[in-house]
């Protein structure tokens, strides 16, 4: 099936939408959703809509808006049972000469806003909205290479943050000290609520975000944070550490972290690899 989709899309995705990334993220979100309570799934869907719309509002560009018919066509494609329609529309926009900002602001963000309105008006079902937001997120992940920032720090650096609601922050501060001894420039953020932390992460010039998770009780806040960061700061590599990661690996692997470790020495090696990879891109 995946081969048929890739053949159907042909080479149009080059420079526009990384099809393998899109397919992997869409599949993982679908599988993750099956393990989560409905209220958390609903909160994650709202987070995707809110962040996509918010990011579009920060992009300054004079872009021609699509007509109502084209916008509704994309919104309907995002909730269609056929997985190929929405990405084909995005690929068609790109090959038709639309730039990244136009695709994001005038099309994806506008469709997300429209779907949010339909949800509030009970014009679409909960299952359709979660399907659509999963596809929007996957498309954004497939387009991440088009939104690389122009200014990043050159030295080895990372932002370490505790997940909102975490009371145990000693571990992340100790880890920061250990990395500083290895020559890393580490900024630590703890005690921030979700929106405040996302805002700080959006502004960081670092290439790596290190998150700490102390237990399964943090999973809701962690999943919401990761979704927000993937949309708001797609250039960042996200690394997760904590003593509880091994026992929750079956869920964490579906969240597409760039690295996961429960051991400090292993974390040092993996972050060095992420750093080397980030500067080679």
From TrEMBL:
GO terms for molecular function: cobalamin binding; metal ion binding. It comes from the Bacteria. Residues 155-281 form the B12-binding domain. This is B12 binding domain protein. It comes from Planktotalea frisia.
């Amino acid at each position: 099936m995946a081969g048929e989709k890739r053949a159907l899309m042909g080479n149009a995705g080059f420079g526009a939408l990384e099809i393998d990334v899109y397919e992997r993220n869409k599949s993982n979100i679908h599988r993750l959703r099956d393990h989560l309570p409905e209220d958390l799934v609903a909160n994650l869907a709202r987070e995707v809509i809110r962040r996509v719309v918010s990011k579009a509002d920060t992009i300054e560009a004079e872009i021609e808006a699509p007509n109502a018919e084209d916008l509704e066509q994309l919104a309907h494609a995002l909730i269609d049972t056929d997985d190929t329609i929405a990405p084909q529309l995005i690929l068609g926009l790109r090959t038709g000469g639309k730039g990244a900002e136009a695709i994001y602001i005038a099309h994806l963000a506008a469709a997300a806003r429209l779907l949010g309105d339909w949800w509030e008006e009970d014009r679409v079902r909960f299952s359709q909205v979660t399907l659509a937001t999963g596809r929007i997120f996957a498309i954004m992940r497939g387009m991440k290479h088009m939104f690389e920032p122009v200014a990043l720090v050159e030295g080895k650096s990372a932002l370490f943050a505790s997940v909102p609601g975490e009371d145990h922050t000693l571990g992340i501060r100790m880890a920061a000290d250990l990395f500083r001894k290895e020559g890393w420039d580490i900024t630590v953020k703890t005690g921030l609520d979700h929106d405040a932390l996302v805002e700080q992460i959006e502004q960081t010039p670092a290439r790596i975000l290190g998150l700490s998770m102390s237990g399964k009780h943090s999973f809701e806040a962690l999943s919401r944070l990761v979704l927000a960061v993937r949309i708001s700061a797609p250039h960042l590599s996200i690394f997760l550490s904590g003593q509880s990661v091994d026992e929750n690996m079956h869920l964490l692997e579906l969240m597409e972290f760039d690295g996961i470790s429960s051991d400090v020495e292993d974390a040092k090696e993996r972050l060095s690899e992420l750093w080397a990879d980030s500067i080679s891109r």
